[in-house]
Every structure is written in structure tokens, then in C-alpha cells.
């Protein structure tokens, strides 16, 4: 059975509203203007330090407060990471079908591991996953392929499939030499055709059949 590893933000969950709320709390404390949801989504994908750096530079804030802003963002987000965050429609059902069919399932995200596990627990999504790799599980983050390799190694099965929503995910899969499935409603910035993928889908109800077709 195909081992399937998923990205988290923009793939399994729509987390941008809570990320935006935490980031804007930090920006406003620094005297900067809040970001729109669309602006926030532009910066999601490389982890919280990169998110804060891009937002800070976008608002013209200097680097001297960067570390303090990252710490404040982490604290704020950990305290309220699932107020507005929800799984995308059909996620729970698709995971149940894939798990029942015998597919080993995992997660590889740039979100910190503790926050990832807390969100999965809060949304009752943790049960299906035999491996969870966060952005601080290894010394490197996606698009370096090492975290994805680690997730698949923990599952110990083949063939492999990585499911994500963004340029970072497509680049990670390509670097790891793993087939990539693109969830198109996520936080992608570029056109679908510009991202290398084995297949694309816009509804999680489609995913089990698409995975079965790979065999």
C-alpha cells in the first residue's frame, strides 16, 4: 500500500486565519499596520521565523526586533492556534478511507512539532498518523528533502506519495524524488501548471480514488 505523507497548513487544515491573528498581534505591538488574510498567505510556508521576517520586511520594520517578534508570535500562536482553524471539507472522511485501506499516513510540515501535535489533538486529527515531522524535528526545513525522507522512513512502507498545496511542497517532493499530489485550494501562489505534480485535486473526496488509480 502507498505510504502517504501530507503537508499540514493549506493542505489538511485552513490555518491562515489563526496565523494572521497571531502575526497581527505582534505587528500591532511593534506599531506596524496589520496584514490582510491574502497578505498573510503570501508569507506562509517556510515556518514562523521566515513568516515573521517577511511580514516585518513588508511593513518596513528593522531586524533588531526579529528574535523578540518570533518569540512573541510563537507564544501567541500556541495560545490560540485553533480558534479559527478548521480541517478542509472532506479531510476526516478521506483519511478514514485511506487508513482503512491500509495506507500508512504521516505529516511533514514546517510548523513547529509541538504546535503541530497540539493542533492535531485539538481538531481530533492525530489518530491516523504514524509519523509526524515538524519544522524543528530536524536541523533543516522543507524544501530540503530530509524532513520528508524522515517521515517516510518512520512509516517504513512503499511506494510513496506526498500531498501538499504549495511551491515549497512541490519543490520538496521533487528534491526527494517522491510523486507529488497538489491540493489546489490551498496556499499556492503560482499557477497549478507551473508546479510539477503527479495529479491535482480540489476536493478531498476525490483523493482515495486518485490514490487507488496510482496502483
CATH superfamily of the largest domain: HAD superfamily/HAD-like
Q: Low-confidence runs (pLDDT<50, min 5 residues)?
A: none
**What is the CATH C level class of the largest domain, in words?**
Alpha Beta
Give the N-terminus to C-terminus distance in angstroms.
8 Å
Q: Under CATH, the topology of the largest domain is which?
A: Rossmann fold
Radius of gyration from CA coordinates: 17 Å
Specify the number of helices: 9
- Major sheet details: 6 strands, parallel
Fraction of residues in H or I helices: 40-55%
Strand line-up across the major sheet: 5-4-1-6-7-8
Number of distinct beta strands: 8
Order of helices and strands: EEHHHHEHEHEHEHEEH
* Structural class by helix and strand composition: alpha/beta
Overall tally of structural domains: 2
Tell me, rounded to a whole number, the average pLDDT.
96
Describe the protein.
This protein is an alpha/beta fold and 215 residues long. It has 2 domains: 142 residues, HAD superfamily/HAD-like (Rossmann fold); 64 residues, DNA polymerase, domain 1 (Orthogonal Bundle), CATH 1.10.150. 44% of the residues lie in helices and 13% in strands. The chain is built from 9 helices and 8 strands. The strands form 2 sheets. It has a 6-stranded parallel sheet, with helices on both faces. A two-stranded antiparallel ribbon has the order 2-3. Helix 6 links the parallel strand 4 and strand 5. Helix 1 packs across helix 4 and helix 3 packs across helix 4. The longest helix has 14 residues. The model has no long low-confidence stretch (mean pLDDT 96).
